[in-house]
Amino acid sequence: MPVYLIGAGPGDPELITLKAVNILNKADVVMYDKLANEKILEHAPNAKLIYVGKKAGEHYKSQDEINKIIVNESKDNPNGNIVRLKGGDPFVFGRGGEEILDLIKENISFKIIPGVTSAIGAPASVGLPITHRAVATSFTVVTGHEDPTKNKKQVKWDYTADTIIVLMGIGNMKENTTEMMKYRDPKTPACVIENGTLENEKIIFGTLENIADKKINTPAILVVGNVVDVFKEIKDRN
Ligand SMILES: C[S@@+](CC[C@H](N)C(=O)[O-])C[C@H]1O[C@@H](n2cnc3c(N)ncnc32)[C@H](O)[C@@H]1O
């Protein structure tokens, strides 16, 4: 049986695909990390649930350790339905590619079930169009927290897309917006979507020059660009 790498969606437990639910229903093992909504695990009533994410006060499992757990579980249950469940989409800052490459090394087959990424799903659900005729013809999704152990920085903030969507960027918001202002007008509209698609969702408006001064909780994404002004027109009617 293949290992299923499944996207759980951005938070609202109904924003998961039917295909994902059908596989979870018959899952024998589910390995998951911090999900925006653990209600999704209710779709796997008979599965052994293995949490591989961060727990307060405990050692944080490295990606290598997680990869090993996935490989071992699939070897121990060659005929079982093994699921690796990830928030959003597994391939959008989800390290899904690394997990798949380790399965390939071990000759273990796999299937990927895409999920609604928070990068697109959170703006869409509040009514923020990340592209809009005559306003934005392109968007970039970028990490706001580049792995400090990398040899070479890849994020340069000189992106030419009309809309910039920053994930994992709340801790570094001041540094990131300062960098962006080298290439964009400081008055460019910006907004943060906190806990997108969840009951405690919050939207915070600002501009590139002041959004970092607002009080923001995680998880959250930052959206920068003139589409934020379009969103202001839509918001109160959504
Ligand atoms: C490690 S990345 C994983 C992204 C995930 N694979 C996806 O496609 O949404 C985690 C980041 O996603 C964003 N994020 C995830 N869920 C979110 C939510 N419900 N609301 C706002 N941002 C969210 C935050 O920027 C968070 O720091």
TrEMBL record:
EC number: 2.1.1.107
Record's keyword annotation contains Transmembrane helix: no
GO molecular function, one term: uroporphyrin-III C-methyltransferase activity
Xref: InterPro entries: 4pyrrol_Mease, 4pyrrol_Methylase_sf, 4pyrrole_Mease_sub1, 4pyrrole_Mease_sub2, CobA/CysG_C, Siro_Cobalamin_biosynth, Uropor_MeTrfase_CS
Any one Gene Ontology BP term: methylation
Pfam families from the UniProt entry: TP_methylase (PF00590)
Enzyme class (EC, first level): transferase
Keyword annotations of the record: Methyltransferase, Porphyrin biosynthesis, S-adenosyl-L-methionine, Transferase
Top-rank taxon, per record: Archaea
Record domain Tetrapyrrole methylase: where: 3-211
Reaction catalysis annotation: uroporphyrinogen III + 2 S-adenosyl-L-methionine = precorrin-2 + 2 S-adenosyl-L-homocysteine + H(+)
Subunit structure: Homodimer.
Function of the molecule: It is a step in the biosynthesis of both cobalamin (vitamin B12) and coenzyme F430.
Name of this chain's protein: uroporphyrinogen-III C-methyltransferase
Source organism per UniProt: Candidatus Methanobinarius endosymbioticus
